[in-house]
TrEMBL record:
Source organism phylogeny: Bacteria, Pseudomonadati, Pseudomonadota, Alphaproteobacteria, Sphingomonadales
GO process annotations (BP): DNA transposition
InterPro entries: Transposase_11
Any Pfam family hit: DDE_Tnp_1
PANTHER family: BLR1914 PROTEIN (PTHR30007:SF1), PHP DOMAIN PROTEIN (PTHR30007)
Name under which the protein is recorded: Transposase
Domain called Transposase IS4-like: residue spans: 2-124
Superkingdom, taxonomy of origin: Bacteria
Gene Ontology MF, one: DNA binding
């Protein structure tokens, strides 16, 4: 069994919020609870998060949608390629997170202890 980590970072690549998901679950399903109650001007994401429901919710919020489109999307959205390049900050965060062996190997037996390790690692990453 695998676990996915869905992460929301700020414009500097620091952890804001995260959710743990089963490895077989679709990523876009957990985005609404992840962004609930947080104000932001835009969302940068990869094509795993390309869903009409998410795009509609972001448009209702007045947030800029910068999501790489799935190749099979019927109606293509215009995205700002210059802004999309900043998605590397999330990837950088994951690279730094995976430097911690307990997180990379998923050594914690419970979700609660795994979440605690992620919070601890994020605090260490931010303090660097």
């Amino acid at each position: 069994m695998t676990t996915k980590i869905l992460v929301l970072t700020d414009a500097l690549g620091n952890l804001v919020r995260f959710r743990l998901m089963p490895g077989q679950r679709n990523d876009s399903v957990e985005v609404p609870p992840l962004i609930d109650g947080i104000a932001f001007d835009g969302l940068i994401a990869d094509k795993a998060f390309d869903s009409n429901a998410l795009v509609t919710e972001l448009n209702e919020r007045g947030a800029r949608v910068v999501i790489s489109q799935h190749p099979g999307r019927a109606q293509k959205l215009k995205i700002d390629a210059a802004i999309y390049t900043w998605r590397h900050l999330v990837e950088n965060f994951f690279c730094k997170l995976k430097e911690f062996k307990r997180i990379a190997m998923r050594a914690c037996k419970t979700d609660r202890s795994f979440e605690a390790m992620i919070y601890l690692a994020a605090a260490i990453i931010k303090s660097r």
